Amino acid sequence: MFVTFEGCEGVGKSTQLTFLKEYLEKTGQKALYIREPGSTDISEQIRKVILDPKNTEMDPITEAMLYAASRIQLVKQVIKPALERGELVICDRYVDSSIAYQGYARNLGADTIKEINAIAIKECMPDITIFIDLKPQDSWRKVQLEDRMEKESRDFHNKVYDGFVEEMKKSGGRIVAVKPDIDKKVTSRKIIEELIKAGAIK
């Protein structure tokens, strides 16, 4: 199965992915862990261009196309071959991030982003997406970091959040919201329960 994690900046995705990895290792379940953009040599190079804070003149369409280009490489080189081998694939961000960030926050429109990514993903959609449902103003991360996305305005990140929520409503249950608890292990248990319910893990 193909599992993705989504959410705004600083919601604790990395921490929760670490907890999930620990749980799967303890229970003898193997998985392939990847991130977007990245996880191939070409995709990692594209990531550097996208997130470089010096690239202030990047057009929103350029940004969307670069994410899609990185995604094509990842799908063809890593995700599809792993799924065909029957592996569990867990990805930190995927196409829902592009829809939220470029579609909603950059005002390109969700349909435009889906059209751009149609070649990239084809039938390679997640079986379940865990959306860590935390608004930007409630983010655990209180220090602004340095990549180009993290440096965007509060209004931008609010639009990202709204985009995730709207797409969740349209997803037919694929995107599952998990409200994070101040106790990160409680959040981890919630996520594991949702993945077990979906049949992604045991």
Short description:
The chain contains seven helices and five strands. It has helices at residues 13-26, 41-51, 60-84, 95-105, 110-121, 154-170, 184-197; strands at 2-6, 32-35, 89-92, 128-132, 175-178.
Task: Characterize the structure shown.
This protein has a five-stranded parallel β-sheet with strand order 2-3-1-4-5, with helices on both faces. The chain has helices at 13-26, 41-51, 60-84, 95-105, 110-121, 154-170, 184-197, and strands spanning 2-6, 32-35, 89-92, 128-132, 175-178. It is built from seven helices and five strands. It is α/β, with parallel strands linked by helices.
Give the overall shape, derived from the CA principal axes: globular
- Helical content stands at 40-55%
Give me the secondary-structure category.
alpha/beta
Biggest sheet features: 5 strands, parallel
The average pLDDT value, as a whole number, equals 95
How large is the share of residues in beta strands? 5-15%
The H/E string reads EHEHHEHHEHEH
Total of DSSP H or I helical runs spanning 4+ residues: 7
Instruction: Please compute the radius of gyration using only Cα atoms.
Output: 16 Å
Order of strands, widest sheet:
2-3-1-4-5
Uncertain runs are none
SS elements, strand count: 5
End-to-end C-alpha gap: 12 Å
Please specify the SSE layout and strand pairing.
Layout: E1 2-6, H1 13-26, E2 32-35, H2 41-51, H3 60-84, E3 89-92, H4 95-105, H5 110-121, E4 128-132, H6 154-170, E5 175-178, H7 184-197
Parallel strand pairs: 1-3, 1-4, 2-3, 4-5
Any key phrases for this structure?
single chain; alpha/beta; 5-stranded parallel sheet; 51% helix; 11% strand
